[in-house]
Amino acid sequence: MNYLVRIAYDGSKFYGFQRLKDNLTVQKVVEEALRKINKREVEIKGAGRTDRGVHAMDQCISFRLDIDITTDGLKKAMNSLIGPYIYVTEVKEVLDDFHARFSVVSKRYLYKINLGEYNPIIADYVLQLPYKLDIDKMKELINVYKGVHNFKNFVSGERDNYECIIYDISFDIKDDILEIEFYGKSFYRYMVRNLVGSMIDVGRGNKTVDDIKKMLDTEEAKFSYTAPACGLYLKKIEY
Asked: 137 and 77 in one domain?
């Protein structure tokens, strides 16, 4: 049986999502739990590979099991083995051709910035800056980023294709926490963190909106600031 499972996790406790030989990762913990449940090895496919320190409210994985188990039973069994920093929120049976990564329709990422006084309790969960930001200036980049662009200057690593589409970007402030939400088809490695980093450069006056436009138009103009992983959340995967 092929399953789609939605999980949430605290990224500060792991060396990212993808399995690593010598370090604790989300994939490693989940696959070890499924091996105990299935009585043999299980390889999971993730909707995306979050980096070390990046959190997930709604990461999605797919995998096949040989045993006969209900979705409710599988959810309970997994949660008994993968806690306390990972939690299964939903289990569904899906068609054989479903793939957690290749079947994705859209993704939502959230980035959190503390605009108030520094708080050590939330240091692993938001970006905290020692300077003020011009939020209105940052918002001017919404229409710059939206649409189809070549995001090569905002992506880490080499790819065959850097083009993707951002449908929308929204800003919201709750209790001095600025939340910037990105809604798009796909996002490449470090892309959201570099987009936010460029917003921060504009918000503190280090760069202009025109500087950022050039980063989308020419390969010579590189981003200068990658926002830390602590403030990034994979918020929602849609199929």
From this structure: no
Coil, strand or helix at 31: helix
**How many independent structural domains does the chain possess?**
2
User: Considering the domain boundaries, does residue 191 fall inside one?
Assistant: yes
Kindly report the pTM of this predicted structure.
0.94
Half-sphere exposure of 45 (CA within 13 A, CB side): 15
Residues 38, 88 contacting (CB under 8 angstroms): no
Encoded tokens for 63: 């995998």
What is the extent of the structural domain holding 144?
Answer: 106-238
pLDDT along the chain (239 residues), means of 10: 97 96 95 97 95 97 96 98 98 96 96 97 97 97 95 86 93 97 93 96 94 83 83 97
Q: What is the dihedral of CA 197, 199, 205, 207, to 10 degrees?
A: 80
Whole-number pLDDT of residue 197: 96
Mutual angle of helices 71-82 and 26-38, in 10-degree steps: 130
The SS3 of residue 197 is helix
Which of 69, 94, 119 represents a domain boundary (last residue)? 94
51 is catalytic: yes
Burial 157-193 (b: 16+ CB within 10 A, else e): eeeeebebebeebeeeeeeebbbbbbbbeebbebbbb
Scan for tokens 């001095």, then name that residue: 176
Catalytic residue among 51, 66, 97, 136: 51
Q: Which pLDDT does position 97 carry in this prediction?
A: 95
Residue 101 domain-assigned (yes or no): no
